[in-house]
């Protein structure tokens, strides 16, 4: 008999297809070390790298008809496109995280200082009303 997920387990909704699928399938790890499912940007980088590999290798083969060199160009294309996508995506991800942190801190300060003498909006409103 197959193991049925317990209703008390967090993250698993009753009756959803994903909860059953996740309980039976192991997470995909590339080369045993890169958890593609949980690392941001890993999935897209690998997919774009694979596409870059096929395009570079096949394009080189069509131009030169040299099989071994085309495979080498394909591997090089995979490495270049994967690293390029990885660094671009991670840069944008880090930038987004910094913006989220700044916004979260601003919202926290807004809640903390709202209505007090330290409220920046209150100071601006009092300056505008005195003019």
UniProtKB/TrEMBL annotation:
Lineage top rank: taxon: Eukaryota
InterPro entries the record matches: Cox20 (IPR022533)
A GO term from the CC aspect: mitochondrial inner membrane
Subcellular location: Mitochondrion inner membrane
GO BP terms in the entry: mitochondrial respiratory chain complex IV assembly
Main location, first listed in the record: mitochondrion
Keyword annotations from UniProtKB, A to Z: Membrane, Mitochondrion, Mitochondrion inner membrane, Transmembrane, Transmembrane helix
Keyword Lipid biosynthesis: no
Pfam family, one: Cox20
The keyword Mitochondrion appears for this protein: yes
UniProt record similarity statement: Belongs to the COX20 family.
Name the UniProt record assigns to this protein: Cytochrome c oxidase assembly protein COX20, mitochondrial
Species whose genome carries this gene: Aotus nancymaae
